[in-house]
Every structure is written in C-alpha cells, then in structure tokens.
Specification:
single chain, alpha+beta, two-stranded antiparallel sheet, 5 helices, about 10% strand
C-alpha cells in the first residue's frame, strides 16, 4: 500500500504540472473577459491577473485558491497608499465575483476577502517630523471582511462599531465564529473533528466558535 500511495502521489503531481500550460493560456479568453477585469489582467503577477487565474482554477475543480495582495501594512502615508491599493483591487474583486456568478460557479464557490487585523482609527505618528506622513497601527479589536457565494447571504452588512470605529457595539463575530461558519459552508462540523495534543483534545476552532446563522442564506 505504501508503494501504491507513493506512485499515486507522483502521478497526481505530474498531472498538476502538465495542466499548467493550458491553465495559463489566456489566448482564448473572449473580449468580455478583458472588459470585465481590465487591461492589467493580461500582465502575469498583477492582482487582476491572479483573480482571473482564480476563476480559471475554480472552473477546473481546484478546491482552494489564495489570491494575495501585499502592501496593506500602512504604518505611514495611509492617505497616499490606500487609494492606490483600493484602486488596484476593487475592480478585480468585482470582476471575480461577477465572473463566477455569470458562469454558474458562485453558488458552490465561497469567496472570502480579509486580513488578520484592521487599522486603528487614530493616526500613528512615531516622530513629530512624520506628522505629514501619518499611518495607522495594527488594530485587532474591530475590522471588516466580506464574503460572497457559497451559500452566504449577500447584500447586507453585519456588525457595527462605535462612533470612533474602535470597539464593536453590535453583532460581534469572533474569529472562531468566522472559522466555524466557513467550515459549515464547506460541509464540515467544526465540533466533530478533534485531535489530541499535549494532553487535551483540540478541534478545528479550538474550544470556541459558533456558526453565525445570520450570515447564511
């Protein structure tokens, strides 16, 4: 069995590698694709290109894809950087969700956009001479994520912060609740799969987490 398993792994790796040329060949994409994603989608490595590749991966049955955009750690020049970052990502995110929906893939594809923390509502000025180049510090207390498809109830906002955008005052969602909800939409009961480590049982969401029913359509 061990030999058969190893052979199977090598064969799967071979099939994955040989599928890459066809996957990355965008020559047959229609004009409507470029109208949707924009001209930057033709340039490998750009965020729009990666979003288009994510759609092509989803079409071919790939079960998990991460599209990563660097540069959000704006400890300085937040007013200069955020417009650039948003401009580089907004159209491509819209295009990806729209494209998946048009192709009938959104119902069983869960799109999750987020990071591991937000930014403080107040400016971060480390030295007086940085006053005109202020940024924002890390803020794990309150921040936003968005989701689409995969049985998520769209077109609504859940949760609210105070007037300073510092603390959550309505419908807080803990990270374990988010994880439990995502797993639920992927067909997993987060309470059932456990493993023993250092003398106690752990589960996929540690010892917390509830499915947020308000998020599910």
């Amino acid at each position: 069995p061990e030999i058969e398993t190893r052979i199977s792994q090598y064969e799967m790796a071979y099939r994955m590698q040989t599928s890459v040329p066809e996957l990355a060949d965008l020559s047959k994409e229609p004009k409507s694709t470029w109208d949707l994603y924009g001209p930057e989608a033709r340039e490998p490595g750009t965020f729009p290109y990666n979003c288009l590749m994510a759609r092509r991966l989803a079409e071919r049955g790939v079960r998990f894809t991460q599209v990563y955009k660097r540069g959000w750690d704006v400890h300085g020049d937040v007013t200069g950087m955020l417009p650039l970052l948003c401009g580089e990502t907004d159209r491509a995110c819209y295009a990806l969700v729209t494209d998946l929906k048009q192709r009938g893939l959104l119902d069983d594809t869960l799109v999750v956009w987020g990071g591991e923390f937000g930014r403080t509502p107040m400016s971060e000025i480390r030295k007086p001479e940085d006053a005109n180049n202020a940024g924002r510090d890390h803020h794990p207390v309150a921040y936003s994520m968005w989701m689409a498809g995969g049985g998520i109830k769209g077109g609504r906002v859940l949760g609210k912060t105070d007037d300073l955008c510092f603390n959550i005052v309505e419908d807080p969602i803990h990270v374990h609740d988010l994880q439990a909800t995502l797993l639920n939409q992927l067909g997993f009961d987060h309470k059932r799969l456990t493993y023993r480590y250092m003398g106690r049982d752990f589960r996929l969401t540690d010892v917390e987490g509830n499915v947020v029913q308000k998020l599910i359509s």
